[in-house]
Design brief:
The protein is mainly alpha-helical and 138 residues long. The protein has five helices and no strands. The radius of gyration is 20 Å and the shape is elongated.
């Protein structure tokens, strides 16, 4: 007696992995809409600074002023004690070290677009970017 176990092809397995990942992403995006609403930072008067740090890179984004970075980061750290150190902020943002976070706050180094955009999305200041799939190219 020969036992045969039908297995999906690699392409079918990859399609399944993609579908599961996409559905998990959709679930997370919907959960994001239920995040608590917190008051904004009050450390700096944002009307005194350009709003270009909220734009997408292809829309004219410019790195935020150090005052904005510091105010946003400190406000976030006050609201979320689990990220109350620069080392914890660095880990959250995927930054190499707490020193780099301090350099961003002090304006010694501009926050790169990807890191800043991630922070803005984490804090609900901008929507998350969704990249369209143009084709599945084996």
């Amino acid at each position: 007696m020969k036992i045969e176990i039908p297995l999906p092809t690699i392409d079918e397995q990859l399609a399944n992995v993609f579908e599961v990942g996409t559905n998990a992403g959709i679930k997370q995006l919907k959960a994001n809409l239920l995040a608590p609403r917190l008051p904004g930072q009050s450390e700096v008067d944002e009307s005194q600074y350009p709003r270009t740090h909220l734009l997408r890179e292809n829309e004219g984004w410019e790195a935020p002023h150090a005052d904005i970075v510091g105010a946003y980061f400190r406000h976030f750290q006050d609201a979320f004690p689990q990220y109350n150190t620069d080392a914890k902020m660095a880990a959250l943002l995927g930054v190499s070290s707490d020193r780099r976070v301090r350099e961003y706050k002090q304006g010694r180094i501009n926050v790169p677009y990807g890191i800043w955009r991630r922070f803005l999305a984490l804090t609900g200041r901008v929507p998350q970017d969704i990249t369209p799939v143009l084709a599945f190219m084996g």
